[in-house]
Write the structure tokens for this entry.
Amino acid sequence: MSTRQTAPPPVVALCDIVTRFGDNLVHDGLDLDIGAGEIVALVGGSGSGKTTLLRHIIGLTEPAAGSVRLFGEALHAGSVHERLARQRRFGVLFQQGALFSAFTVGENIAFPLRELGVVSEDEIRDLVALKLAMVEMEASDALLMPAELSGGMVKRAALARALALEPELLLLDEPTAGLDPDRSASFVRLILSLHRELGLTVVLVTHDLDTLAAMASKVAVLADRRILSYASIEDTLRVDHPFIERFFGGAHGRRALRHAKESG
Amino acid sequence: MGPAGGAPVQARDVVELGPDGIRLNGDWTLRALAARLPGVRRRLRAAPAGAAWSLTEVTRLDSFGATLLWQAWGRQWPASLDASQAQREVIERVARAAAKPLPAMPGFTVIDAVVLLGSVLIGFVRHVRDFVALLGQLFLDLLHLLRHPREWPLLEISANVHKVGVKAMPVTALVGFLIGVVLSYLSALQLKTFGADVFIVNILGLGIIRELGPVLVSVLVAGRSGSAMTAQLGVMRVTEEIDALAAMGVSRSLRLVLPKVIALTLAMPLLVLWTSAIALLGGWVSAWVELDLSFHYFVEALPEAVPIANLYIGLAKGAVFGLLIALIACHFGLRVQPNTESLSSNTTASVVSAITVVILVDAVFAIATRSIGLPA
């Protein structure tokens, strides 16, 4: 921190990542730098290790080799206290929401704030109301149990919880999977508006071309065990590779991208 | 960590009380403020009412910082505020959300108590109804299997016998042996004072074979296999595996419940036999050390002291207890709702109910068999 750098360090810097499950080599010398304010979509075939890469960034799993740096610092560097402080700088939206089923929605959102141990109950109440409003839920929804929510509501509530600690980096695992097109479009609008207001950096794993076209400022294509291309959608389409051809090339893909360009 | 006694942490404090109003400096974010929040709150409270506020030196303002300010202002805009448009928007958003407060958890009233009582009663009736329905379904399944012998789920039954029977042998043996040792040791101490050493065989034989063996195994199996069955069925419900079975037209009672019930009903008498034998062995070891009783004498005297009917009673109890434990475990397993709380409460209820029912039925057995197998 003592030396002033000319450019701010990338929010996420993955360097030479190697991941192995038994004999199965998933990542082999993978590099990826994500700058502040980007919305990066991580795409790749099934089993190409997108979610695993996300889990490396969160620190739930560790790569066999290579380094993960968040906000310019190594993920596991420093004291326990510093590591904890770094973990509180990002929020995660898990694929199934991962709301604590024993808590109400309000308690779920309040949970990370309570864990901090410094925020008063009055402030927590106001902040929970604010986060609910941010994800376009009603204040009365705070009393519902996660089992009473629909799929789209679960995602919204989980997003509100991920936003509780005012993260700079938001990690989304399949944010629109399991939502109907209408809800998935409104969820995308929601994240885009949050991105605009809060200046978040967003990393999302997705299979959904509509989501990708509507949101991503950059696309990172994970194929052949590394990042094949990391560029805007237009530039990604120019890359000549069988996976990119299959993923974006279908009739549906072209239509989705054209539609996004027209409406965007 | 903790409050630094209100001393300024940096050269410029985040809250500066000046003659011409209050000036806020630096980052007003959760991360920046968290470490010195008590001091910041104290200084905000010290601000005089109606003071002028300046946010021009604030570099970043997040919704936590805005909430802190909004509460310090008494939930209204201060008379004089110097802030940028972006900052006003952040605070405005907090103000809008705070104006619609979260609904409070409803309190507990007399009506709620009546509703609670009613729901407990209805819940109990539902329990009984579901349990009877499960029994009826299993009966129908058995009839179906008698007419279609090719559909017996033999593989599942055999797998379950292995799981609840064979794998339970070490732990039941260990517990049985130790109980036998302790029971025999305590009895031997008493019998020695009366010079009635030889009756140790009667006490151990009758106590373990007729009573202790079946109940001990039931408690262990309810804790070990009953909880596992409930949890397994519960998780299968949560992951929709049971629905998947139903969608394929496979009866869940035939494939999931019946094999467990049959397996435990078959395995329990064998476990009782095994555990009783090991407990008797432990009892003999203790009697040998304490009373110098030979193994030969122990084995010779046992059939005379304990009529064979006691063994049959013990085995019958084992079968009945096994049936009950499996039925209760499956009953609670099928009631699990898709959340962690329901899984834990149903597993607990399964084990507690199984043990309670076993002991109740054991009392019934004691009354029903009071004239069988006891030396006159």
